[in-house]
Structure formats: C-alpha cells, structure tokens
Amino acid sequence: MATLYEGYTLCGVGPVQNSSNIGILGVEQGRDIDYVLVTDSSRSITVYKVSDQKPTGSWSVKQGQIISCPAVFNTQSQEYVVVTDDRVVRVWKEDDVNLEKAFKATVSADVLRVLSATDSEPVVLFCCGAVRFLDSLLASPQQPIEDVLTEDEIIRWSTIVKAEHQLVVLFSTEQRGEHCLYVQRFNPNTLVKHRIETEPGLSAPISFSATCRGSNIHLLYLYLNGSVYESVLPFRSSSTGAEGVQALSCSLCLSLPLGEEKLMSGAAVVLDEAHVAVIGFPHPSAGACKDYLCIWNTHFQTLQASKEMAGRIYSQLWCYSGKLYVPHGKMLSVIPFDCQKSSLAAAMGKLKQTSRSESKSRSFVTSWTCSDVTQTTEIKSRMSTRNNVKSALTVDQLVEHIKTSAVEDVQAEVGEFIRRAPQADLQLAAGRVALELVSRSQTDANFYPQCAFLQLLETRYLCYSVCPELLSLAMVKKDFHLCQIAFQIFSDIPEAVTCACLKAILSTPDLEMETVNLDTDSVIFMKELTQAHSRSDEEGGQLNGFCPPALESDVSDTPSNKLQRDPLSLDMSCPVGLHKGALLNEVLQTAYSDRSLLPHLKDLTVPQVIVFLQYLRFLYFKYSHDAHKQIRALRTPSISQIIDWVCLLLDAHFTVLAVAPEAKRLVFDLHKFVRSQVKLYAELGKIEGSLQVLKNSKQSEDFGMYAIQVIELF
Amino acid sequence: MMSTDLRSAMGEFKVHRVRFFDYMPSGIRALAFNQDTERMAVARMDGSVEVFHCSDRFFQEKIIPGREQCGIEGLSWVGERLFSAGLNGGITEYDLTNQKVKYTIDAYGGPIWTITGNQQGTHLAVGCEDGTVKLFEVNEDQIQFERNLDRQKSRIISLSWHPSGSKIAAGMMDMIQVFNVETGHSIHRMLADRGAGTSRSKECVVWSVVYLSDGTIITGDSVGMVKLWDDQTGTLIKSHNVTKCDVLALSVSQNEDSLVAGTSEGIVVQFQFVSMVLEKDDKEWVRTRTFRNHTHDIRAVAEITTAVVSGGMDAQLVVRPLLDKIEVRSAASALRKIHFPHRRLVSCARKSGLMLFQYPGHLELWRLGESEGKGTPGSSLFVKRNPEKLLQLKVKGEDHIRCSAVSPCGGWIVYSTASTLRLYRLHCDNNNISITKISKLPKVLSSANQLCFSSDSSHLFSASAQSSVHIASLSQSGCKFVGTLKPKSGSHQAIHLLAASEDGKWLASANSDHEVHIYNLQTQKAHCTVPVYSSAVTAMGIHPATNCLFMMHADQQMFEYSIEQKQYTDWSRTVQRKGLHRFWVERDTPCLNVMFNPQNPSHVILHDMYMLCIIDQSLPLPDDKTQFYNQLTLKSLTEEQRKSQSHAFKVCKTFKDILCVELMPDQSLVVVERPLEDIATQLPAPIKQKKFAT
C-alpha cells in the first residue's frame, strides 16, 4: 500500500513570463535531504529547508539575463551551479550574496543542462548532445564542443543516474517524429543510441523517469494515451556505440485510465520498484477532472493513493527523499508519501484469502479465546478516538520508541497503538511496526516482544511478504506459539521457510516441545486423535467392517514371522508428542507448490524424515480407520494433504528410505496399507460401474409411443 | 429361430411395447356403499356405473356402460337395488343382473343434483334444480312419485335422511333446510356463512349434508367449512375450517363415530366422535387424520367398514384402509388405487397382428409394426415398419360400447352396446382397408355382455341374458344363428368372461356369481360346471394341448381344471396344497389375461397391471422362504446354478401400467401400456395451490 500524506506549500510559483507551460524550471536536491533548490522560470534561484518550509538563501540574475537551466548543487565542492543565457556557467557558494560577483565562464556551445548526482562531479550536457564534466569544462571553457546530434535533433529530456560510483547520463531526443534515447557512460566514454520503438500511432513520450536498481537502469516513460512503458538498460554496457542505433525493448507496465477530455500533458515519476506517481491523468473514479496526483502499483495495476491538486497542473513532478514536489496553481506543494513493500495481498487490500469455511469460523473463535480484548478495545477505541485522539502515538513516534524503549514498554505501546489506530491506518502501520520490532530483536538479543508480535498477527494485517524476518526470528527464538499462529495466518510462506520450520520442529525434543503454549484447539484435536486410537484398540474390532483379504496373502510372502499378526493391527501409536503433532499439522496445512518444496525437503536428516513419515503414516491410518467419525476441530489437515506430503517425502528421500534399515518396516507398513486401500477403491470402482448401469437403465425408460424390445426371462 | 428357443429354457421374447392406446379413464362423480352386500357402486362422469366387491379385493364385478349426455349426479342403494339421478332430470334404476339400465323416469323438477334413499328402503328423495325435494315411493318393480316437500327458492344441492326416516336435511345455496317428511314443511332454516373478503359476494354452496341419528346435521360447503348443527334448535354447534377451497363430499360411518370429508384440493379429512376426557361420555367431533391420495377434486367419499373410499376428477378410486379398524394386516388391508377397469379393453387378432382398442364411443384398429435384425436382451430393435392405425369405428347412437372383439384371423370385428350389436367384415388387401357391416343379424344377437370368436374365426359367441351364450356361424355370406348354450342351473348373472378352446370343442363362460360353466360346442350342451370358488374369476383360458381350463381369481388364487376329466388337475391340487407365495397373493391388481405358449406346453402366461408372469408348471413351486422375484439373481448365475434356483413363477417387472398382454404366434409379446403419467398430463389442471417456493 502507498499513502500520500497531507502536503504543504513550499513556495509560490512566480508569474509565468513566457507562454510555455513551465511554472518553474526545476527542483533539485540541495545540500542534504532536507534542502531543495528551486529554480523558477523568472530569474531567481532559492534554497529551501523543506521541513521548515523556509527559504535559506536566494539568488537572482540581473534583468535581461535568463536562467536557462535549473541550478544544481555540487555536493563535492559545496557549490551551486547554474547556466544563464545558454552559455554562461555560474558557480557560487552558499555565503555568496550576489550572483553577479560569482565565478562565471562562457562556453563555446549552448548548454542544455547541468546534471548533478550526489558525491560526484556535475556533468554539463550541451544542446548538441555533447557531455563534459564540469571541472574539465571550466578548466578550458572555450574548448570546442563536438556535435553529437544531427542538426534538427532536439533533446527533450535528460537525467543522470548514479550507482556503484558510476555515472550514466540519459537523454532522449526527437527528430522528425522519431524518438531516440542516448546513453552516455563514462570511463570509458561510450555513447549508445537507442531507438524508442513503440506501437505505431503513439505520439511522443511526454514524461520520463529513470531509476537505478541492481545493475540495471529502469527507464519509465509515459505516453499521452496513458500507457506507461518500461525499458531496462544494463548499467555497464559492453557496446562501444559503434554498432549504431539499437532498438530499445520495452514492456507495457501500466495502462492509465483516460477520461473523456483530451489530455495535453502529464508526468510520471518512479517512486520505487512497484510504484509510480502520476500527475495530469484523471482519477479512475473521480470523473473527468484530471487534477489528481495518483500513486499506481505497476505490479498489480492498482491505484494505491490519490490526492486532488488544486489549481493548474504544470505536468511537472519531482521526487526527492520520500517527498513529491508538485507545482500547481500558484504554489509548489510538497507531498510526503509512503510506499509499503507491496505484496499481492496488500495490493488487494486484504491480507489473507480465507479459502476454507472452517478457517473462516476459526477466525471468529480465536477472537473469543484469546482476543476478546481486541473486541472490547475496539469499542473502547471508538469511544476514545473522540476524546483523546491527540494522545495516541503516531506510527513514526511508535517506530522511534521501538528503537529505544524496553520490551515491556514497547509491548504496551504496540498494544495501545493497535487498539487506537483506525483500521485503514493499521493496515499500513502494522507492517512497518513489525519490521521495526523484528530488526530491533535481531540486533538486541534481550529484546523479544512476543506479545506485541502476537497482537500484530491477530490484526491479520500481516503476511509473510510484509515482514519476512518474523518467522525466522521466531524460529531462532524457538517461539513455536508464534510460529503456529503465523502458519495459521500467513498464506504466503515460501517453501524454503516452511521446510526450515519443519526442520526446527522435528529437531526439537518432545520434552521441550510439551512446555510450549500452543493454540488449544489444535492440541485438543491431537488429544482426540490419539485417544480415539486407544479406544478403538480396546474395542478391538473394526468398526467399518473393512477387511482386505489381500493382506493375508502378502504376509506369507514376507520372511519375517513377526508380521504374522492381524493385518489390521497396524502400528497406530503416535510417534510424536501432542504439541509436536499439533505443530506438524500446521505445517501440513500450509500452501505450497510441490516443485518448489521438493528440493528443500531434501534438507531433512534421515531421522527427521523417518519421524515425519511415521507421523504422516499415523495420521493416514487414523484417518482411514476412523473415516466415519469426525473429530470436532476447526483446523485439521485433510486426508489429501497428508497423502500429498507422504508422496513428497517419499520422492525427496527415495534412496535414503530404500537403504535405511530403520525405514524398512515403516515403508513396508505403508505400502501394505496403501495397497489394501487401492484394492478397496478398485472394488468401489466396480460397484460404481454397476450403479451407473442401474442409473442408466432407469433413465432409458422413455421410448415414445412404440418400440420393439427384447426381454429375457430365466 | 428354433436354436434360440432351445438355447435357454425360458428364452428371449420380442416385445412390442405399445403406448398409443390413449385410454382415458373417466372421473368419478358419485359413490354409494351397500353395507349389506359389501358392494361399492361408482358413478363416473361419462355416465357409467360400476360395482366393486369390497370384500373380494375390490374386484370390479359389474360395469354398466354410460351414454352421452347422461350426467349422473347421485347414486343410491335401496336394499339391493341401485338408483341414480342426473342433470338430465331422470331417475334411473339399474338391472344389476344383466348389467344394464332397467328404466329411467323423469322427475319433472329440472336437473337433479342429489338422490338418496331412506334406511327403511321405502322412499327415495331427489333434490331438484327447481327447489323441490321430491319423494318417490319404491315399489316392487318400479318407483312412483309420491309428493313434493315445500318448495324452496334455490336449488337443492344435497340431501340426507334422518335415520328414522321422519326428517330430511337439504343443503342449498347459502342455507340448510330441515324438512318434516310427514308434513312436508320446513322445520328449521340454518344459514351458512359466506366466505370472508372477496368471496363474500359468492354464494355459499352446501355441497354435502349428513343427518345423524342424534339429530346432528353435518354440512360441507364451498367456503371450506365442515359445520355441525343441532336440528332441535337449528343452531350451529361447531365449525371446522378444513380447507380454503370447497368441501365437496361427506360420508359418515355406519355407527356414526367417524366422518370423512373430501375437498377440492384432493385431500380427505377424517373426523372422529371421541370423548375429550378419558372415560367420560361427552363426545365431540374432532378432526383426526388427513389423507392425500388425490391430485384433483374429490367428488365423492364413502366410509366403509374398514376403509375410506374416495374418488374424483383424477379418475382413480382410492381405498385407504383405516388401520385402527383392521385386526389382521394382510393384502386386503393395503392402500389400493384402482386406475384401470378389470376388463380387457384390447383384443388381438393374433394371426394377422391386429389390435382392437375399445374406447367408450369408438373402436380403433391398429396393425403392429415390424422389426429388423436381432438384439440382445434389454435392447430395442430397429423398427422397420411403424404401427399403423387402420380404422376408427364410431359408435352409432348414444350408448357407449360394452364389449368388443376382433376375430383371430383379423377378418371380423364385433361390438355391442346396451342396445345394439354390430358385426363387421373387414377386408384387408395390402394397404386397402374396407369394412362392411353385416346386416340382418339374427334377432338373438341384439345385445351382448361379452363377445368372443372361435379360434378358427368361424363362430361368434355372444354372452346374453340369463347367463346364456348364443352361437352364430360366420361365413362370407353372413352370420347365421346356430344355437344357444344355457347353463343347467344356477344364477342368471351376466357373463363377463368367455374362453373358447383352440380345437373348437369347448367354451367356458364365467359370470359375476363366480360360476364357470363349460359347454361342449359339438353337442351344444352344457358339459360341466367348475366348483364355485368364493372369489370372482378375473381371467381364464383353455390350454390348447391339454384342454385344461386355467382360471385366475380376484384373490390371486389359480386353478387348473381338466375339462375332459371334469376335475382339478394334479398341478392345481399341488398349488392349493402348498399354497401360493406370499408376494404373489399380496399383489393388488387382478390378472386380466391367461395365455399359453404352444411351443412350451408347460408355460402359462399371465399379467396384471404391474407385471408379466410366466408360470412354468414343470418347475417346483416357491414356498415362502424362497426368493420370489428372482429374475435379477438368476441373471447373474450360470446355467447350472440357475437350475437349482429356479421356481415356477417367472415375473417380469420391466413393464408397468399394463392394460393388456398378448402372445402372438411368432412367440412375440404385445404389451399395451398406458403410463399413468400420460393420463395425469391429460387431466384438467387441479386447483392451483400455493406451494412453498413456487
């Protein structure tokens, strides 16, 4: 989920001198993240401290001079750089008052922009496409500048991307309706030209945004028809530019809805890997009005947040350190935003798909057993929000507290926060709080707020992808209760983690496990299961009259006369303790894909495999024998889940089980039983055939008014 | 052909399943129960009157066919005499011996809505459209108009005599009148309430009234109420809302402790006169049971000794036993639904593959289709030629057909109504059908109770009055009277069954007094009489090889009587000694045809409404421990095992709602079915009832 917070005005936008749409020339990062450099389209450059909404410095050029590109801050030399009248480069420091007295140099060609990235030398991009580092240019200002672009090729957009101490300058050009992207890399200097190929009929891209992710540059560009395309460029290119023009492969990653009005402009900026902020396009449900700032999720194509912008939109949008800068009307607004790590669940606005009816009912019951507190507190919070909204902690405050406070305080505060926060906010905040709690727990060995974790889980706003570390933390801390709840609530646990948990559960001794406090329902189920076993033993008979005769013939084949026993008195004792069984049941019920699970299952040691298989066999026998009786429990593994796990386990450890002597008996029993089941089902299949014939014979009654049939009497 | 028959002992049969006989039973309009003779008289919408024997498995003993436009509204027994009255304004007495109308006299009061006789058997009262209640004196051989009671303004819908015979209650529009029979004056006038709301404007029709000996008058009306009135004060004692529709019929039991009401929703509601407090004597009428066996209006109900009998627009007669009045649970105490008449409506010309269907007002002659190829048991064969309707013969006059027959060769058709008998010569050259009526029939052949051709089609046997059978010889030139067969002694009841032997030597007749006479056709003399059995004969046939008469009775017993030796055969004695299987005896529809398989002399083929049965006299009889319906079991056994498992009764339940089964000379069977669902779809729509979720 993403949110747009309440924005504030940074400064007014000066009267538009020229007829262009540009309200301000640019907003650039200042000397640290709290400072921005605003170059307006008149003649002034102003530095603002964003959090204070106050200007800390302002410079302007003399009348008659024109600032031709946005000013930038050179973080290396702590100097500001601007170009006036296309060719005059001016450099000054914070404490220089008059721009006229600052250093200036006239270069031999028109400068398009000065591009600056943090901790690196600014780069000067000329209108002709040539690129120079600022320091080398100023060393000899009149050096000849070569023409890179052809005569009528105009640069439409440019940016600089920095990663791994490597700078890349990107600029796009337009020439007779053809759009190209140039990628300028340094050391060695290479310039690669890409042709932007899109579907025919599309006009020019109206907005670009580039970010660096991993070793690739992700370039996002927006068309007037609402399509947002993404192209991925390798950061380091082996090509030298000699290959000529390369086609730029692109993929459509978002289609923005269009209103009825014809759009003239718009802007998009990438916020993170999944989110993009768009301005100038209509809100899908707010009619034709296009004055909206929207955050879209490109993974799920969903609108995540939106904000109406008053006044005229300039189709300009900048994003620096968690804040969006939007000129609109007569002001430049700063809008802080927050993009949560996106998961499908979060994007859908729900955390968990409850697929089975029993799990639905479970959610009700658990709220009775352990979280009736939340029920009452919900009411309480509704009452209290009216009275003392102010006293509730904000997420930021809470996160700060988590970093420093003691465990008890943190738990109390988290509890209080969950109770007080409105549901919508909680959805966003829960993940952040959990992440913070986990990261503190990981660094601070004494810090483990189990209660807070449980409370957060019970909000059901968490899922595995929101806070991946939580489960492994719980494993490290041997907090099996938390594990169990997480298994019940998370639907997106990766198979590797499931296996790791399984391994941890299997390797923990039963004695230690019995002391763990677990969900009572699951323990009761295990108790019933094991007791049902002893009861039916006492009765000593088969309840459903199932008697596979084939088993006896098998017995004679086996050399071991130990097996000369009632074929049905299969080993029905539970190989693990109640609590371990309950936890294993939770593992059995997790969602998985067998192909992903199989390699991880191989990590189990042989004893673990045997114990687990014994337990699965126990469950399988149990279920097959007591199929007629339903143990009342809210969450039980189904017979098909059990069988699937048996298959997986056998697949994963086939050779081990074939070789290990201690597994022989187990596999033998399992095989025998499965064979008898197969025979039973084969017989049932025959009955099915007969029943089908009976059914058909009943149906074929209608033959109309006349028929000649053959009957046979015996 | 022979090889297939040899392959299995019983073998395969090719079956023509015929469903194009559109027989429609007529709705039931009135019921009258005679306690003394245990006979139930049933009047139908088409004017026919039937008499069922209640203690003989409700066998339909007598059928008096109706006539057009006769519209019976009421039936009443006076002693053993049966009277009906109808909207044509006449009162009819029936000659039950000869199964025909005895006479009809006009009551001169317009349409008659109701007729009822007093318990003393001296008078009949009829309720007329003109508002009069007319009293008729019942004389020895006639009835005579005696007088009118005070004339009322509206029509008399229902009447009931006080058991003493001194008072009469009459149900009318919106009111009930109580008359003193002596003076003819009205004693009380009781107003029946109209329904509430919109139905307020509609008159309340008092459809039925019952006068009890304690002076209570019970009425059923169109508002859906059953009301109890006191005839002393003329006041309402109690009222029960039974239905939202009409209460159309009421009937009280003989000892006046139980009352049943039939409604237009098709339900029967029982009321019982019971004491509310144990061992106290103040009794009240309490609604006790509800029976739902009908889909349509119940037009008549009758409470008999052990059961409630009801009938209505859905044309079925339902006998619902009252289990509290039954001491031994038996086949006789089961719920019984009578859909089809216990007479054959289909006759087959076996040698030419023709079938004659008898409808009330016309006959249809059909030719069976032909198949091609062979099929495995259970399969349908390809129909090479479809069945074909050759002829439709409409009856002259208003009387409905009483009986009909087609000769085995297919050359003659004969039918009889109450007044005439007509014989036709049928010429069938390929596809050209022509028919000529034989004129100048012998005078004795004026009307017949049953008709039958000899197996070589050379003679026609016509059962007539006095249990006699006339013989006429048939030839190209026409029909010539040969002689009359008369029983030596015994009753004069009408003959309902005739059976001629294959060799043309013997003729057997059965009448409704259960007498079976056998005549020698060569001498034209009575040969012998089969000992009279207590239950009616429902079907009989003479074996072509042994000349033994095989008889089926209404109580499902079977006898085989050797004509030549004039005694029961050994097999028959064995059957009687060992007894029949429980399941066989408990079947609730009579067998309607007895056939023999010339290729397998030990086989007797029988059928009733639900099954077809081949009795193999060479096989052991089943006792009560053996599995009776064993066809499915036998099917799954091997040839060897079958031998030990088989018994004499091979029952095939593949077919249902069977009207007729006939064995053709080519060993194929004709099964004429009339599915009840088809009948139900042709009935008028029942009263629309709101059902949940519809």
Throw out a few tags for this protein.
heterodimer, A: 714 residues, five-stranded antiparallel β-sheet, 20 helices, 35% helix, B: 694 residues, mainly beta, four-stranded antiparallel β-sheet, 6 helices, 57 strands, WD40/YVTN_repeat-like_dom_sf (chain B), UTP4 small subunit processome component (chain B), RNA binding (chain B), WD40_rpt (chain B)
Can you walk me through this structure?
- The complex is a heterodimer of chains A (714) and B (694).
- With 714 residues, chain A is an alpha+beta fold.
- In chain A, strands 1, 2, 27, 28 and 29 form a five-stranded antiparallel beta sheet that branches. Chain A has a five-stranded mixed beta sheet with strand order 14-15-16-17-21, with no helix packed on it. In chain A, strands 3-4-5-6 form a four-stranded antiparallel beta sheet, with no helix packed on it.
- The N and C termini of chain A lie far apart (77 Å).
- In chain B, the strands form 15 sheets. Chain B has a four-stranded antiparallel beta sheet with strand order 2-3-4-5, with no helix packed on it. Chain B has a four-stranded antiparallel beta sheet with strand order 6-7-8-9, with no helix packed on it.
- The longest helix of chain B has 9 residues, at 570-578.
- The model of chain B is unreliable at 1-9 (pLDDT under 50).
- The interface between A and B is medium-sized, with 13 and 37 residues.
